[in-house]
Every structure is written in C-alpha cells, then in structure tokens.
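Listing S7. Sequence submitted for prediction.
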Amino acid sequence: MVDVKVKLFANLREYAGVSEVTISGDTVSDILNSLGQQYPQLKELIFENPEYEDELQGYINVLLNGENIQHLEGLSTQLKGHDEIAILPPVSGG
C-alpha cells in the first residue's frame, strides 16, 4: 500500500469539510472506497451505486497526477508513492 494525497474540489470539499486528505491504497478504487468510508456523505456524490462502489457517477472526474483515470485503467489503476488524486465534480458558473 502507498500513501496518496487526495484533493477534493467544490461541493466535495464542502461535504467532507477538508480540501485534502492522505489515504493508503493500491488502486484508485481502494482510495475512493476508503474515502467513502471516512466521509460517507461523499459516497453518493462519487459512486453511481454507493452500495457497491464500483462505478463512478458520470459527472465525476478523477485525475491521477493530472490525467483522467478513464484514459488509464479506470478504478483499477495501480498507484505509486507520491501519487496525487484530484476529484472534480461538475462546476458551473458564469
């Protein structure tokens, strides 16, 4: 397991009450599942089916070191030390 910095943005940050946490895991899925355990209110915002935690909401973007995990191996993407995950919900404004 490696420690990964997770950055939360917009309403995710508001619901968690923090903008950044460090979580240990081997894959992106491990990290997001642990995040959902620490901050249960985030599960419904991040996962399509919070009970199974196996599919992201269509509007959530998860970046690993600036690259969307959809362009990697999705939730199965393996992590290395000093990786950084950013979770971005949809943002609107004008």
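Caption to Listing S7: primary sequence and predicted structure tokens for the chain studied. The longest strand covers residues 2-8. Residues 75 and 93 are 29 Å apart (CA to CA).
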